[in-house]
Amino acid sequence: MSYDYDVVVIGAGPGGSMAAKTAAENGLDVLLVEKRQEIGTPVRCAEGVSKEALEEFFEVEKSWIAKEVSGAIIYSPDGTQIKLVAGMAGNEVGFVLERKIFDRALARMAAKRGAEVIVKTTATTMRREDSGVVIGLKRLGEYYEVRSKLIIGADGVESRVGKWGGINTTVKIGELESCVQYLMSGIDFDPEYTHFWIGRKYAPGGYVWLFPKGEDVANVGIGVLPTQTKKSAKEWLDKFVRENYPEGEIIEVVAGGVPVTGPIETAVADNLMLVGDAARHADPITGGGIANAIKGGYFAGKVAAEAVKAGDFSKNFLRRYDELWKNDFGKNLHRNKVLQRKFVKMDDDVLNRLARSISDYDLSEISVKKLVMELIKKNPKLLWDLKDLFL
Amino acid sequence: MLKRRKDGSEKNGRIVIDRYKCAYCAACIAVCKYDANLLIETFVQVDDEKCTLCKACVRACPMRAIDVVEVDS
Q1: Do A170 and B33 touch (CB under 8 A)?
Q2: Calculated CA dihedral for residues A233, A235, A239, A241, nearest 10 degrees
Q3: The domain containing residue A109 runs over which residues?
Q4: What's the sign of the alpha-carbon dihedral A365, A284, A323, A156?
Q5: Domain B3-70 of CATH type 2.60.200.20
Q6: How many domains does chain A have?
Q7: What letter would DSSP give residue A171?
Q8: Per DSSP, what are the bridge partners of residue A268?
């Protein structure tokens, strides 16, 4: 059959736009499809990402960044603090993004490299024909079909593309962080740090976060595991806000479901690759998804170009993409999934004990790995089963 | 209206989404084993034929926007 495109990317979040940009840069004919009428809204995200993760791929523009932070403070249920501070020479600072601007900038980059972008268009069906795929699109009520050699599903936590390809991406109820976040203004906090509250007291199976977006403006949000509580994420967040920031005004509400499944067996099928939340690439401990989505999008775009060059769109060929993401961040997903399983089982007393064991000095790196390594050193018996993964 | 699940058992109710509470986050869709929920931009549509009333979506919803209402048989 004749093809309209080499690759159609479904979803214009960071993962999809990165895949489209990379594929276009490598000379492919690309269509980037976004179902919403505006790229970048409504966000479903706390907007935190490490500086390194962005600088690996972009000349970071000031307008993308709402706030730069130099450390993180974790509060255990009894108020014990653990401080993680970026080292003197360290590059490990964090960015709190302005996703509305960042997502659009990425989509524009993809367009600039030659990708065609359409919004307010939903991909509704997919079928295989000859060695390609026929994708059904509904744009402003009008149904039409496009033919493509490849499809990249960057269609988020609710991904349908994976299911079309026969990849069962249904998230178990015990592996979905149910999240709500308020953008709050007029509240008092230390804007040089991101802040995390852990424990059943605050957020069963998850945590509460505060990510500064300015001096007195911050994303205050929560993730809970539905299997750990009967109350909704919103009820838990309202309680936290009432007790801690009653003076603040809520100027935006966002909700989200974050998959914390750990790595899936494969993110490819014939003619098809999955990227970002659609591939369940969010970090099971932090819930962060932007860095892996961008990397995954880059890998998928590269492999798409190789596949087109080779004229081979089979699952077997596309396994190169699996190899790339597994060798890169796949190990971290696995490690942090093991950690998350253990974390969910810890009661507040255990968390307090762990926090107290390392509260008297500051950690010189903002990373889960560094934090857990220190905890294991101080609590070898309690955390012996994590030893091989982290040390 | 009494409905029958695929396994022959009966269900007596349906999923209702409160449009004023829903924030279109799609958590309900991610956990649906039966592909009964679909997000159309800012509108979650429930396919009553596919839905088995397993209530996974009710539990996953961060906004508590989803409920099961009983339907008279």
Answers
A1: yes
A2: 60
A3: 5-67+96-171+262-340
A4: negative
A5: no
A6: 1
A7: P
A8: A273
Q: What is the mean pLDDT of chain A?
A: 95
Q: How confident is the model at residue A28 (pLDDT cuts 50, 70, 90)?
A: very high
From the list B35, B59, B60, which residue is nearest A163 (CB)? B35
B25, B31, B59 ranked by CB distance to A171: nearest: B31
Structure tokens at A229: 């509580």
* A154, HSE (Cβ side, Cα atoms, 13 Å): 35
What confidence tens digit (pLDDT) does each residue in A149-202 have? Answer: 999 999 999 999 999 999 999 999 999 999 999 999 999 999 999 999 999 999
Which token pair is A373? 């390594």
Q: Is residue A359 part of a domain?
A: no
What span, in angstroms and rounded, lies between the C-alpha atoms of B61 and A178?
A: 7
CATH code of the domain covering residue A152: 3.50.50.60
Q: Is the CB of B20 inside 8 Å of chain A's CB atoms?
A: no
Cross-chain Cβ contact A176/B35 below 8 Å: no
Task: Please state the ipTM of this predicted complex.
Answer: 0.92
Evaluate if residue B1 carries a pLDDT over 60.
Answer: no
Residue A361 lies in a domain: no
